[in-house]
Amino acid sequence: MQTGPYRITKGVALLLAGTMLASPLLAEEAAPAEEIVVTALKRGNVQLQDVPTSIAVVGQQQLEARGVAEFADFARSVAGLNFVDSGAGDKRYIIRGINAAGEAQTALYYDNIPMTGIGGAATSFGDRQPDLQLYDVQQIEVLRGPQGTLYGSNSQAGVIRFVTNKARVDRFEGSAQGELSTTRDGGTNYGIRGMVNVPIVQDVLAIRAVGYSEDYSGWVDNVYRNEKDFNDTKRDGARVSVTFKPDEQTNIVGQYFYQNLRTGGRAYTRPYDVTIGDNFFPAIGRRATSQIGRETRSDKINIFALTADRDLDWSTVTIAGSYFKRDVLDYVDNGPSFRYFEYLQRIGEFPPVTVPIGSLSYSPQKSKMWTIEARMATKFDGPLNGVGGIFYSNRDNDFETNTTVVDPISGRPDFSQPLISRRNFFDKTKDFAVFGELTYDITEQLSVTGGARWFRTKRDLVANTIVPFFGLGAPGTTSAKAKNEDVIFKGLVSYKVTSDVLLYAQYAEGYRSGGTNASSFSGVPPQYDPDTTANYEIGAKTSWAGGDVVFNVAAYRIDLKGLQSEQRFGPGGAFSGVGNIPGTAARSKGVEADLLVKPAPGLTVQFAGNYTDAKLAKDVPSLGAAALKGSNLAYVPKYNLSLSADQAFAISDKVDASVGFSASRTGKIETTYYTEFNQPSRGYTLVDTRARISWDQFKLDLFINNLFDKAAELTVFNTINDPHVVLANRPRTVGARLGIDF
């Protein structure tokens, strides 16, 4: 029997769905077409075409029409945005080709709440960033290029911001949605979602609640265990916001997020023969793998936030605080690694210890983060305006890894056998910053902006070796400290040629804080320093034909200095850690474009594309034999293209309909600088189709995702523990969604 938050959130979703389906008489008229505004500049609402920087916005209508439930559902439609996909809730976001190990390089926000990934042995918090369900989200904003002055650490490539709908004090409204689909080579998928907004005191106090429960079938078979479709995913959650408006000048919003994500295993497949050392691993199939251990995963997130805004006529003061808590339990099969250790023994590079046939690691991880930001955005009538404030965060991360002999029957740890290793670490990071940006309008057309951020970061790590790896070495405790302080800058010039044409040029810096390693191998450096980005960019934002044609383009060059990167140490490079590469280690150059065209009544066509040339700027032997000047950065395709078209039409006076498709093309991707491990992924094209019928307050969506059943290589890994495995995409999925608004 399911207990606790799972039952609560599933019950909330069912209750909301039942309430709304039973209340058709409360329906309101359809909302007008969405107006695209941006809130990410922390200066209130600004029209997208008036913002002199490269931003992509995906609005609520588009999210609903495309059935977007999570990050991967929309990412391929945004120029310059990529991700390393390791499964549900385990992604690393990449903007403009900026990608390396260590802390995140793309900041992730839900409203005013900064998110953090879960670290590993190298405290690589850029991985495993949260992936919350996106029902009842107002819009998604993707800021491309460094945003260090306003968003601080980890925004050196850009920012992804999910803006949720808050409780509305002026109206009662709600929605519900049920989804049913089937996946080829998999099974049946379902999702139920609901939202209700209730004013408690009209125009003063309101509550908005969202609930959801989703169950997605697996499609990968484990031939060793004779398990079909083992990589299923279940996700349940709730989101609550309370808005309090004591007067016209004050707005206070309290929020709570909860999500429980469980997976039966990673969608790692082995479609190719591969040899690591002298160990041969035969191809299994494009939707199959072979593992002794069960790689299940659970991921629970709880978030509390409070934001207060006060209008002072000449400015708006905002105070935003949040508490983020995440608990993850990972199981990872170590079988291939242990075969590699046997190979090293055969060539005399690993001690003569007894290596078991199968091994499984289980890693409980807990992350907590408190943040508070106080800022003021002016709105003078004169030419000078700006935003400034202070920021503080305190992050605690507890990580434990236990390496065990695996029970071949259950696929779980065999606790009757001694532990192979056990380590834990306690990592604390404190960040304090003062920031500001000022804009001066020289004329009605010409404006200049300058910004800066001073930051100070402190980090402490305590690592305990409780059971040394294979008994090599002795138990003990190590500690490391890091302290960094610096200032980064931004400069921007914009020129409004006409009311529909905006040109700009900018220089912007970004950074991410240094960190600590917690490897069991003593040769891995205990800490690494911050790295920085310097962005040189020009762009144009244009509208034509009364807004029926919108074309935005930007060209950029980003220099990465002191780059944090994963480096290998120890016998055969079996141990990894994060280190710095001195000087300008890498450079990313590229161009990105967004085009929207409405060529006929009801027809909307959108195109997004980018070309990215992200390369090492010098030889870096510590990264591997192939890490030479001019080598492509790992996991960065040269190009991404997307095209979509939607045609809306009326069937009758009371029934509307639409049909559409989305297609994306991702180029080939290099995976590592180690020649013996580099297995580039093939480029791929994915196509989705959709149709909608709307009547009264109802909407029926029919969809086919992955229309041509393409087995795309989303991410390729080739390591001693993951020998040429491919993270597979979901096969062709055909389904329907029925929704109601009231």
Explain the overall architecture.
- By secondary structure, this protein is mainly beta.
- It has a single domain (5-741), classed as Maltoporin, Chain A.
- It is built from five helices and 40 strands.
- The strands form eight sheets. The chain has a 22-stranded antiparallel beta barrel. A five-stranded mixed β-sheet has the order 3-8-9-6-7.
- Strand 36 (684-695) and strand 37 form a beta hairpin.
- The two termini are 34 Å apart.
- Mean pLDDT is 89; it is low at 1-34.
CATH T-level topology: Maltoporin, Chain A
Quaternary structure classification: single chain
- Alpha-beta classification: mainly beta
Q: Give a short account of the largest sheet.
A: 22 strands, antiparallel, barrel
Please report the total strand number as a whole number: 40
| Approximate shape | globular
**Total number of domains:** 1
Separation, N- and C-terminal Cα atoms:
34 Å
CATH superfamily: TonB-dependent receptor, beta-barrel domain
Unreliable stretches (pLDDT < 50, length at least 5) are 1-34
* Rg calculated over all Cα atoms: 26 Å
Q: Mean of residue pLDDT?
A: 89
Q: Number of helical segments?
A: 5
The residue fraction in helices comes out at under 10%
Question: How much strand content do the residues show?
Answer: over 45%
**In the CATH hierarchy, what is the class?**
Mainly Beta
Membrane topology: Multi-pass membrane protein
Domain TonB-dependent receptor plug: 48-159
Pfam families: Plug (PF07715), TonB_dep_Rec_b-barrel (PF00593)
Domain TonB-dependent receptor-like beta-barrel: 258-707
